[in-house]
Amino acid sequence: MTSDLHLAGWQLLYEQRSFWRNRARAFFALGFPLILLVTFCSLNQGGTVSSRGGIPIDTVFLPGILAYGVVMATFTNLAVETARLRDASLLKRMQATPLPAWAYLAGRIGSAVTVALVIAAATIALGEIAYGVHVHTAALGGLALALIAGTACFTALGIGIVRIIPNADAAPAIVNAMVLPLTFISGVWGPSDGEPAFLSHLAQAFPLEHLAAWLQLCFDPRTHGAAVSGGDLLALALWGFAGVRLTQRFLRVTMTA
Fold this sequence. Notes:
mainly alpha; two-stranded antiparallel ribbon; 10 helices
């Protein structure tokens, strides 16, 4: 077990080196959410959200973009890369190496989680320094729990969703087709209070809306206490469980085919 853990650690280190040495991918993953934050906050500087008690609009933008960054680092990244590895038969050939399958997956998942945490830290720091958006001390626990639950949920879904992706070339298009429409109805790019009721109900059926709403609760200056949303936690947990089941079936089929 100690040897396997050592191999998993080396796999994580390898995945991190591979990720950050690909400058285009690293810039898009880390820099794009920050560019979006600067763009939206600059265009709406000084604006407030009347439907939410007149809070600064920056306080609504930052959590949404933070949710988008987490999804990009986990769900999008893992889905595209796993589809590529599947098509190249690397997942199946890996069984002939001394590296256990779980250690390999732990390295890839750990790398995606690490990138998500870096993106979260950079986004929160930029919001605090440049726009004065901060989290009350009492809400830090809720923020940490939201990031953990969201990261775990979208990490599981990112691997499991490859079952419905026919090939690696189609992966970016399919993944973006899943994510981008949901961002517009889930409050990622700003308040969605005026959207039609059916779109609101549709958004609530998917995990992105729950992650964005929970993060907005954590940053909302009107929030008092731990900022733990039981309903959003339950939704993310259910979707995460579904992602784990999909991942198990995908790996069973892929590695035995």
